[in-house]
Amino acid sequence: MRTYRPFVGLRLLLVGLHLIYGALQVALLFRLGGAPWRQRLKRLWSRQLLALLGIRVAAGEGDLARVAEGLLVGNHISFVDIFVINALLPSAFVAKSEVARWPLIGWLSRHTDTVFIERGSRRAAHRTHRYMLAALGAGSRLVIFPEGTTTAGDKLLPFHAALFQSAIDAAVPVHALALSYHRADGARSEAPAYIDDIDLPRCLISVLQAGGLVARVTLAASFDPPQADRRHLAHRAHQAVAAALARL
């Protein structure tokens, strides 16, 4: 069932205001406390945003409570994935450098511990690796989407292994997460998919029109300590996520 268009417009306005509210929180409050304080702010703000979008978050299989630190890897469907994960496991994220230029969301990303991937040179890759190693070494939860792009949630692309190296070098656990979006009747929904030529406003409208979505996050597997070969580690994580998505 689709939401009546005037209400979609009103809720879209509320989402925009909430993004501004988030920017004010980051500017005025984010640096006042330590990591636990910032995690609480991230979790609360993300849950409020998802409520405005009409998305309920449900933890699937696996004990997410034991994911205290390490590298989190998962499939990637939408920019909404970030807020779904933050609602359960407030984390820092690795994102492509283009995200830093997005209106509001880019500013929020730059000021909330995001590590940006700079493509195009070996030096940039080494710099990204150093930033990730520092974050993981400080005990942070750091999230990557190793497919390198988004899908509609109907398939799982191969995982790029390079970004797994930071977990091996930092000797921290790797946790594989499976994300999926569902309608109220349990069927998989493609409404949040951020693919092809869709832009941010149209993706938001698609989510709002869908109404009553459920985002499920499953802990598919944990590797602690991580395997020493990053390609094998990426393959094992991919297998675990694929199996969890197939069960869903």
Descriptive account of the structure:
The protein is an alpha/beta fold. The chain has one domain (5-247): Glycerol-3-phosphate (1)-acyltransferase. The protein contains 8 helices and 7 strands. Strands 1-7-6-2-5-3-4 form a 7-stranded mixed β-sheet, sandwiched between helices. α4 links the parallel β3 (92-96) and β4 (115-117). α2 packs across α3 (80-88). The longest helix is centred in the first third of the chain and has 24 residues, at 5-28. The protein is globular. It starts with a helix and ends with a helix. The model has no long low-confidence stretch (mean pLDDT 90).
Share of β-strand residues: 15-25%
Provide the structure class: alpha/beta
Q: What's the alpha carbon Rg, rounded to whole Å? A: 17 Å
Helicity, in percent? 40-55%
Low-confidence region ranges: none
Largest sheet: 7 strands, mixed
Average of the residue pLDDT scores: 90
Provide the spatial order of strands within the biggest beta sheet: 1-7-6-2-5-3-4
What is the number of strand segments? 7
CATH class: Alpha Beta
C-alpha end-to-end distance: 22 Å
How many helices? The count is: 8
Count of discrete domains: 1
Q: What is the CATH architecture assignment?
A: 3-Layer(aba) Sandwich
